[in-house]
Design goal:
Largest sheet: 8 strands, parallel
Distance between the termini: 73 Å
Strand content: 5-15%
Helix content: 25-40%
CATH superfamily of the domain at 438-553 and 565-719: Metal-dependent hydrolases
Radius of gyration: 30 Å
Oligomer: single chain
Structural class: alpha/beta
CATH class of the domain at 438-553 and 565-719: Alpha Beta
Number of helices: 23
């Protein structure tokens, strides 16, 4: 018979996809050794703080309250001084927690605490009896914990104004992924005519290195980040050059220039491929900046004399600016292949008539430097001023260059898969090693909050896949200030995000605790059950805009002026993927989460009205949340999803926590789920059939969240680039 042990055996080792939590991005980024058990286990956990208050502990021993007992404010509280050292204060707070924990039998905190202590390799007995020691956890780092938990993906929520620049999230990329080698149709179409030029026909320019001029046809170029070679390697190169100059004194002819390149470049390439420096281009969002710049002026045609722009149809007005079809930017070159490595770039391209390689390189580097500095929150030089270029001499040289670019891609993949390469282990959102977590921010907002399209685009560039919306009062969904939320939902639908609607929190309770502990102090309550009509109206409004061929604008009435601009109803001008921010353009994947469990049945039924379109569980009742995140709450959600929805499409568990140790709750959820299923089998409600039950459990514990959040179809930034909607050139022209 399928019992608990068999069920649990199927799922206990599955990776964790934690799509909503409140972990500190800076803490994850810095990845420093952790502090005391109190700091990791108690200090940032509002659940534990609430339990301590219920047990009568003073606020100064819960959250601090400037070191003062909340019941007895004094002049010291006003000055922020306490007369107690931080070490003594932590000791007092630890003692307060030890007094509290033995009293929590029956509360989920007691079960979670036992699991957390066992996970750390500690004997839970002394702690559960209030005598445990506040040990140091300096052997642990956040990344080490995440690896042991088998976290594949986690998404800390970040406020719209709080997204840190990419460069401030890690000294090296947290989201480290291997680049894709891009090859273009011109590779297959390449003919011997491409190699009619010889080295002698090209002009050369010199700085520290000789460079090919505009007469060349096919060129292979490498340029690198300023910090890509450490000082010891630069010193070694300088010493090597000094020795080489003894046998090859300047001035050099072109043959000597080539010889120097052939001699020095392999050594430099070896060092570059080792991944020295910040390697910011290992981050897919930053790498995309470079890829977009490379492709912007690319001529997509494969035949000489064509531009890659569709011909003007008969009767269509041809708009030409400076001899260029205004529908596309000027074409300066034809890409054959490129790869953006973590700290350098290789490009093989064909110069078009009257193009200049130095101007092209300047255009790439100046635009990307500005954009990368903006995204990383830094300033100063990004690229090394010099670059390396080689003229392609013949077909054999061409094929060898293509193979070389491909080998670089494989080398970068091996580097990304090497867990020892960086303390924060490499990751790739859409294909990462399950041992290495991908840390991607999600957008946190309130239902009536103003969020600009620019902010949404910044989150999207950072890899965001989830928008977390707090809808404390569902009546908000009926009001005019939900218009911004409609915009966010439309953006989410267009960009493959999932929308979480967290409904029913009563946040304005104790003013005293809010002043002492802040808005997230663990003292919120539950509102009355949500208004299903308000939720239905909101979802229906979004869905009406997602019907193929519609814009979310009512049809033109008879006799009304039909004003169409570029195929778009003028009442809803194109903005986001052809949609005005004011006009909802679709219903994204949506997870409905109610803090009041009385709404679970209503939401599970309502979700079934908004599904289909090839997306299993597109709209669904989410997991037990906040005060419901315990065995009773989990069982209730399972029952409601099974009875009113399709359990095998359920997205499963997420921690919604501020504590690294809270990932044990995924195991807690899996145990409750397996126990519930085993009971159903024993009672005859579920079939005693592994072929049916194992896929169901694997889906709920991992695969559904993986497919909904990570594998969901995502419109790449390049496919929706502003250059498709705006003829203004984003690359600084030269």
């Amino acid at each position: 018979m399928v019992d608990f042990d068999r069920c649990y055996g199927w799922v206990k080792e599955l990776p964790i996809v934690d799509w909503h939590n409140h972990l500190d991005m800076q803490m994850l980024s810095e990845d420093r050794p952790l502090g005391s058990l109190y700091e990791v286990w108690v200090k940032s956990d509002p659940y534990k703080h609430r339990a301590m208050r219920i047990c009568g502990e003073p606020e100064r021993l819960v959250t601090g309250f400037n070191g003062q007992d909340a019941r007895c404010p004094s002049s010291a509280a006003a000055t922020g001084t306490t007369g107690v050292s931080p070490v003594d204060m932590e000791s007092e707070k630890w003692a307060a927690w030890m007094r509290t924990l033995p009293k929590l039998v029956g509360n989920p905190l007691f079960a979670w605490s036992r699991m957390e202590l066992e996970w750390l390799g500690l004997d839970p007995g002394p702690y559960l009896h209030g005598t445990g020691e506040n040990i140091l956890l300096s052997d642990w780092t956040p990344s080490k914990m995440l690896k042991k938990f088998n976290v594949e993906y986690l998404s800390p929520c970040v406020g719209a104004r709080d997204l840190p620049p990419l460069g401030q999230r890690a000294s090296r990329p947290l989201t480290w992924s291997a680049p894709e080698v891009k090859e273009f149709p011109s590779v297959q179409a390449c003919a011997s005519s491409h190699f009619s030029h010889t080295l002698a026909s090209g002009t050369f320019h010199r700085r520290n290195l000789p460079h090919v001029g505009q007469s060349a046809t096919l060129v292979f170029v490498t340029f690198r980040l300023t910090d890509s070679l450490p000082n010891d390697k630069l010193e070694e190169l300088a010493a090597f050059r000094e020795e080489w100059l003894k046998d090859h004194p300047k001035p050099w002819d072109e043959s000597t220039c080539r010889e120097w390149k052939l001699t020095s470049f392999p050594k430099i390439e070896e060092w570059l491929d080792a991944g020295h420096g910040s390697c910011i281009l290992a981050d897919p969002a930053l790498r995309k900046v470079v890829e977009d710049a490379l492709e912007y002026f690319n001529d997509t045609a494969t035949e000489p004399g064509t531009t890659g722009v569709p011909p003007v149809e008969k009767g269509e007005s041809a708009c030409v600016v400076n001899g260029q079809d205004a529908r596309c930017p000027s074409r300066r070159y034809r890409l054959h292949a490129y790869v953006v490595m973590p700290n350098h770039v290789h490009v093989l391209f064909e110069l078009l008539e009257e193009s200049d390689i130095q101007k092209i390189l300047h255009s790439w580097k100046s635009y990307t430097a500005k954009k990368l500095n903006e995204l990383t929150g830094t300033s100063g030089k990004v690229w090394k001023e010099e670059y390396y270029d080689r003229l392609i001499r013949n077909g054999e040289h061409y094929q060898n260059t293509i193979k070389y670019i491909r080998r670089n891609g494989e080398a970068a993949k091996a580097l990304a898969e090497s867990n020892g390469r960086d303390a924060r282990c490499p990751s790739d959102i859409n294909g990462q090693d399950a041992r290495c977590p991908s840390v991607v921010p999600s957008l946190r907002m309130n239902a009536g909050e103003e969020v600009s399209v620019e902010t949404l685009e910044k989150f999207d560039a950072a890899g965001c896949r989830v928008v977390d919306v707090s809808v404390d009062d569902t009546q908000t969904l009926k009001h005019s200030n939900s218009q911004t939320l409609s915009t966010v939902a439309s953006f989410a639908a267009a960009h493959g995000w999932t929308m979480l609607l967290h409904m029913g929190a009563l946040r304005e309770t104790s003013a005293r605790l809010r002043a002492a502990a802040g808005p997230a102090g663990g003292f919120a309550g539950m509102r009355a059950p949500v208004d299903p009509m308000a939720v239905a109206v909101f979802l229906n409004t979004l869905e009406r805009g997602s019907v193929a061929g519609t814009t979310g604008v009512p049809p033109v009435e008879k006799g009304e002026s039909d004003c169409v601009v570029n195929g778009q109803d003028a009442r809803c001008p194109s903005d986001i993927n052809g949609q005005d921010a004011r006009c909802p353009s679709g219903l994204p994947r949506t997870i409905l989460m109610s803090l009041n469990p009385e709404a679970h049945a209503q939401l599970a039924v309502l979700a079934g009205s908004f599904n289909g379109e090839g997306m299993p569980g597109k709209v669904q009742l989410g997991p037990a949340w906040w005060w419901c995140d315990h065995e009773e709450g989990i069982r209730d959600v399972l029952e409601k999803n099974a009875a009113y929805g399709v359990l095998s499409s359920f997205v499963g568990m997420t921690t919604d926590s501020r504590s690294l140790l809270s990932f044990v709750r995924h195991d807690y959820f899996r145990r409750v789920l397996c126990k519930w299923v085993a009971e159903k089998v024993a009672s005859g409600s579920f079939p005693d059939d592994e072929s049916l039950l194992r896929p169901l459990l694997e889906n709920v514990c991992y695969k559904n969240a993986h497919d909904m959040i990570i594998r969901a179809e995502h419109v790449e930034p390049s496919a929706r680039s502003t250059r498709q909607n705006n003829p203004v050139n984003p690359v600084n022209p030269v």
